[in-house]
Amino acid sequence: MVKPAKTAASRTPRKGGNPSGRRKAASRGRKKKTASKWLFFKRWPSWVIWAGAVSLCAAYILFFYYFFIGPYSFRWKAIYGDPVYPEGFDVHGIDVSHYQEEIDWELLRNASLDTSPVSFVFIKATEGTTLLDDNFNLNFYEAKQNDFVRGAYHFFLPDVDARAQARFFLKQVHLEPGDLPPVLDVEKTGGLTVAQLRKAVKTWLDIVEAEYGVKPIIYTGYRFKLDYLNTPVFNEYPYWIAHYYVERLEYKGPWHFWQHTDCGRVDGIRGNVDCNIFNGSMEELMRLTIPEPDLSVEPEDTL
């Protein structure tokens, strides 16, 4: 028996109602929202809207320049990753840590930065009171074996006892004549006041200077130096200033080293490496190193 076909009127509507009706309703809802947004903007004169947009763009440009490009900027990696090698300096070097992983020191020995050989290497040694860099001992040994002028630095944690940090550095690091003075890397305040930070930094410097008989080098950013360490007391120390992607270092005081890029490339190291210049000749760099002990001075007779 053939069942009669259902007419349009006799068909039972599917659950959920008419889909096309729902789409139209949703479309009307979106139009209402869009219209309400435009009404909000229409409440303001067009010149106000344009002035606000221009102000926002200007604020963004100023912010970006101040924190990442200008003379007070500290760390910024170039957009295209191209290192900048300042002109007028002959003595170039790098600083390394475990982030550079295994270094091919034979390749590095014959490598060059731009057109200059790698003359010196700073090596991360310690941090706080417990962390010895994984690759420090190997890197420190290989730097000596491959005739680099080498140095070792301590990453300072301001909220950790400065005396304990100095003792930990001296326990782990044994600099020799011909090595660069010990380096204190100061980049953070650790929640300390300016006075507290200065006291802690000076404590570390005094203890380490007493051990080696030379003033340690202070590594920091240009802006950090001006904000926290810009006093006559700290101006007595050699400075290693970090300031990236500028044609010249804006710091007006005396300085010895300038870390000018964090994305240098050099044979022997996979990936990027920090690059530095020394503000002087190779002879002046050697005069900065720890001197040989004066054997002509006889110890006093205590009898």
Notes on the structure:
This protein has 303 residues and is of the alpha/beta class. The protein has a domain at 91-288: TIM Barrel (Alpha-Beta Barrel), CATH 3.20.20. The protein is built from 8 helices and 10 strands. The chain has helices at residues 19-42, 46-69, 105-109, 136-145, 162-172, 194-212, 222-228, 282-288, and strands at residues 91-96, 112-113, 116-127, 131-132, 149-155, 183-185, 217-221, 239-242, 257-264, 273-278. It has an 8-stranded mixed β-barrel with strand order 1-3-5-6-7-8-9-10, surrounded by 5 helices. Strand 7 (217-221), helix 7 (222-228) and strand 8 form a beta-alpha-beta unit. Helix 5 (162-172) runs parallel beside helix 6 (194-212). It is globular. The model is unreliable at 1-15 and 68-80 (pLDDT under 50).
Low-confidence stretches: 1-15, 68-80
CATH evolutionary superfamily of the domain at 91-288: Glycosidases
Count of extended strands:
10
Biggest beta sheet summary:
8 strands, mixed, barrel
- Which class of the domain at 91-288 in CATH terms? Alpha Beta
String of helices and strands = HHEHEEEHEHEHEHEEEH
In CATH, the architecture of the domain at 91-288 is Alpha-Beta Barrel
| Global shape | globular
- Termini gap: 135 Å
